[in-house]
Known about the structure:
The chain has 351 residues and is of the alpha+beta class.
Amino acid sequence: MLFLHIFRLFCVFQDVLRNILDLNESVIQNEEFVCCVSGGKLFPGSVPLAHRYGGHQFGYWAGQLGDGRAHLLGEYTNRKGERWEVQLKGSGKTPYSRSGDGRAVIRSSVREFLCSEAMHFLGVPTSRALSLVVSEEPVWRDPFYNGSVIKERGAVVLRLAKSWFRIGSLEILTRTGELDVLRTLLDFVIKEHFKSIATNDPDKYVVFFSRVLNETAHLIAHWMSVGFAHDFVPNTSDDEGRYSIGAQANVGLFNLQKLLEALKPLLTSDQLSQSLQILREYPQIYHQRFHELFKAKLGFLGNEEKDSYVIAFLLKVNISWIVFFSNCTIINSYSFFYFFYDIFNSQTVRS
């Protein structure tokens, strides 16, 4: 854990403070609270952990990664019975920091702090952010990956999620042959986070895979409907545009393929065949939800075959999508007509 000698509480989201953590806003005046959300002091009963996982970078297996700058502080059950895992990001070195310093800078911390709350209030499932602490202590970074290292200010975000487990949590166990641990972890995840799946169901891993696939397809479609790109930053090494907004559905499919590979040692041949069939259904599930959301955004009623052509056309038109997604939550037939008229008379269709 990191102790920030010169720090200040820059921002707190009141909704998270009151409605998730059951705290009064007066707590932000408490010096001990500020120390806890900055990583300078532990909350009572907290035993910090760092998460071990593996993963792919640009489509290639990168081996064991893990939380290099995040500490899981513990789990909190609020007065509504909701269980939230509390985590600090940017709070210092962990066993998985490798050559890194475990720190985070203001620009990345502000991005996560604002985006997570914006997504929540847009109705998109997401993690939540409680606080942003900034520090005067220097953090040295090469923001454009061109060898020009600059001094930046450090920051720490306290964020919450129902779970911080990821596909890579299972992948690393399959890759290293730790199949008993894989089964134990998977059973725990199903018991805690997929309560509708019977723990004694012999096909529970197939049902789990189906649930994750459906939720992944719906989540990415929801991202697209509000113009959000997950993990998108100006990255000069992403020559193929792997992390571009239009590639998100395909990356979702890639992730699900890797999840199935991780589950494979626990599946019978029949269960694997079922799971492969479920995987093949992903494009249809995604496109159906994608079109439902876009039709609602455009104010389309009913189910017309031409709707798909209009949506496909709009996605290829050279317009400002920031303006479109910001102002097109609900469009009535008249405003849509004029919007469409402007496109045909003043914009250029991309090839």
